[in-house]
Amino acid sequence: MSARELRARRSCHAVPGSNPRFLEKAQGLQSDQVFLDIEDSVAPIAKADARKNIVEVLNTGDWGDRVRTVRVNDWTTQWTYKDVIEVVEGAGANLDCLMLPKVQTAAQVQALDTLLTQIETTMGYEVGRIGIEAQIENALGLINVDEIATASPRVETIIFGPADFMASINMKSLVVGEQPPGYDVGDAYHYILMRLLMAARAHDKQVIDGPYLQIKDLDGFQRVAGRSAALGYDGKWTLHPSQIEVANEVFSPTQQDYDHAENILDAYEYFTSEQGGAKGAVMLGDEMIDEASRKMALVISGKGRAAGMKRTDKWQPDS
Ligand code: GLV
Ligand code: MG
Known about the structure:
Order of helices and strands: EHEHEHEHEHHEHHEHEHHEEH
Helix content: 40-55%
Bound molecules: glyoxylic acid, magnesium ion
Low-confidence stretches: none
CATH topology of the largest domain: TIM Barrel
CATH class of the largest domain: Alpha Beta
Radius of gyration: 21 Å
Strand content: 5-15%
Distance between the termini: 34 Å
Number of helices: 12
Number of strands: 10
Strand order of the largest sheet: 1-2-3-4-5-6-7-8
Largest sheet: 8 strands, parallel, barrel
Mean pLDDT: 94
CATH architecture of the largest domain: Alpha-Beta Barrel
């Protein structure tokens, strides 16, 4: 991310704001991010209490260095303005991002940006610090994703919401994350995943895969998470604590790849320098590396560094 801090989001753990026990428990989990929900996991009559619970746990809980996000209701409901005002006025100093679900247009992101700026100014918070995570959950949102990604400098992530998306395009399936029965010629989600990934990479945002609802099927979670990780996604939602460890592993580079990437960066920097002979393409062991290798290595090393990985093998000029 250019202007904003790059945060690890391998596992983005969802917690219903209406459940005090889950809000308490989430503080002890090893997820990179936690998002406290006032949207679809909270019943309409429980939304007012969820706001209060969330303000309370943000201010008094121990969240370590996790990314703390609150998902508000989307702008087509009657709840959004109160969600934003109550949560940000009440706990804005202890909050990193707001997640806006079912985003369809850039104007919806701009409306949230404006409201946030007013609250930050009124409360004396740093203006612009709170980020926005835009959830793309329907056809119009997907078509407008580039404008949505660039609608405000606050936007940090683009998130795929598969359940709402499947409903919005009339997909003939009820099993989120798995292929719709009858479609046997490829991955029915490939276009959507790739489109979001392109928008995120074109505009320097993170891109996050949404939930896998069969929470007892960890193999299934690993398989589906592995697909988006392989494409280049930064992380995935987790709905159950058991999914967190799997997500952290799937979205981290392996230790071997991380060491290799750091070594490519060191070797390339050395060999392109005066001292190393000012070369462009050079050998690292049996492998030829050049500027394109450096770019690929930067991606792996960036993910490893964000995940707090440490090197176990360090290249030296005479090795
Ligand atoms: C998440 O919000 C989804 O709709 O999948
Ligand atoms: Mg949704």
